[in-house]
Design a protein that fits this description.
Elements (H helix, E strand, L loop, with lengths): L1 E5 L3 H13 L3 E5 L2 H10 L4 E4 L8 H11 L5 E5 L4 H9 L4 E4 L4 H22 L3 E4 L2 E4 L4 E4 L2 E3 L3 H12 L5 E2 H9 L9 H14 L4 E7 L3 E8 L1
Parallel strand pairs: 1-2, 1-3, 3-4, 4-5
Antiparallel strand pairs: 6-7, 7-8, 8-9, 10-12, 11-12
Helix pairs in contact: 6-7
Length: 229
Amino acid sequence: MRILIVEDELKLATSLKRGLDEYGFQASVALDGASAKKALELGEINLVILDINLPDINGYDLCRYIHDRNSHIPIIILTALGTIENKLTGFDAGADDYLVKPFEFSELLARIQVSRKRSQQSSTSAAHSQLSIADLILDLREKTVSRAGRPINVTPREIALLEYFLRNQGTVLTRNEIAENVWDIPFDTGTNLIDVYINTLRKKIDKDFTTKLIHTRKGIGYIMKEMAE
């Protein structure tokens, strides 16, 4: 497995490479965004470990670039920026996981294994998988959404959120369940970011249609089912 480490702190990058090589991975280092883009163009990369504070580009922007170029490459953000808002920004940019510095190397190894397994499962299921409700279709292979034949522009995290709803149609989902299953983070009762994401998605897939698909269950969470309003 070829892993690209995008980290501008040479000491940390070297340490990560040495540790990953010892565990049988083929790790390479890019100290800035330009070097990372070149590495992605020149060779096959199976997973990216990405810092946010890079000297020449914002790590979130680089994450979007990598995801847009090849959405099948798992991206693990490794950064000192650890707020819920930081994590949601990273996930929305296309990251598969988010690990905050300081960290244990054993935890990074575990995250790599989980991301690799998730990527393999996604590739297998996406080869023959579409999810739908009413006239809405989520194509897991193409990462596209349409309703009544009309394309809907969605972000990577909105696709993950929609997939979770579609796989749990008719079930009331709590904010905590959504946060843990879509963002892999605990729900922070002091923020409304989960609600903001859901409301944004609801506007995109429900606003112009008589049959609504995402509904609020006051004091509990949300449910996806067909219901005219």
